[in-house]
Amino acid sequence: MFMLYLTCKNHLIILEQTLKQCSLWSDDAPSKEAMASSAPFACDTMAFEQWLQFIFIPKMTELIQLQQPLPSSMAIAPMAEHVWKGMAQRQILITHLQSFDALLNQQ
């Protein structure tokens, strides 16, 4: 399990770095109302990259730090493919999320 946590942590670091390289990292957090969205990926209140930055990365980091069970069925890449369809510069992010999905789905 230790190796899975370590690998996931590395995926999160790379995801953050890649979001920054793609100029998709924000210095300003969404409002409390936006963060409270119950829609999948908070798609009704924020951009997908904001959901990755302000909800997904912190939640996964918390699970790793507390050594809690990680999701065993994850499908984030299909949302990335939908949101960034036709945006060649986002393919690196899509590919990374596909790899992350595969890692957690095979545990």
From TrEMBL:
Q: Where does the record place a coiled coil? A: none
Pfam families per record:
DUF446 (PF04287)
Occurrences of domain YqcC-like (ranges): 8-103
Q: Which domain of life is it from?
A: Bacteria
The record's section on InterPro entries has: UCP006257, YqcC-like_dom, YqcC-like_sf
PANTHER family with a match to the protein in the record:
CYTOPLASMIC PROTEIN, CYTOPLASMIC PROTEIN-RELATED
The protein here is known as: YqcC-like domain-containing protein
Source organism per UniProt: Shewanella inventionis
Name of the gene encoding the protein in the UniProt record: yqcC
